[in-house]
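Table S4 entry, Phosphatidylglycerophosphatase A.
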Amino acid sequence: MDPTPRFLLAHPSHFIALGFGAGLSPVAPGTFGTLLGWALYPLLAWSLSEPMLFVMLVVFFAGGVLASERAGRALGVADHGAIVWDEMVAIWLVLALAPPTLVWQAVAVVLFRFFDIVKPPPVRNVEAAFKGGFGVMIDDIVAAGYALLVLAILVRIFA
């Protein structure tokens, strides 16, 4: 089943799992979800203290597990491509730890998308090992870890 705007609005968990509609993009919904996450990140960063931001990311992750589980069941595919909340939470984590400049944030976004698409070990292993909403969310967090590792090396070299 391909989600429609009607599906998006049918339940709050669908709205969240589909990244407020970014997941309805006919091409590259994961990239659109990531880009929406990047666009929304300043709202989080400016309105929350750093400790509260990380607490909210944990809450968003847990909520994403539930929302993705429900949306995946309704779509008939546990990790449907339209589910992009996982990309949004992961990019918020990466951006929270990236240097706060537009250039470094752009590098962080590109690195995250690269590792989320390529899924080097153990990202693919994690994706295969965990099912349901937790499986949808956790592989993106592992991909975020790769992005942060490479970003830290690049910052050390170029900053």
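The chain has a mean pLDDT of 96.
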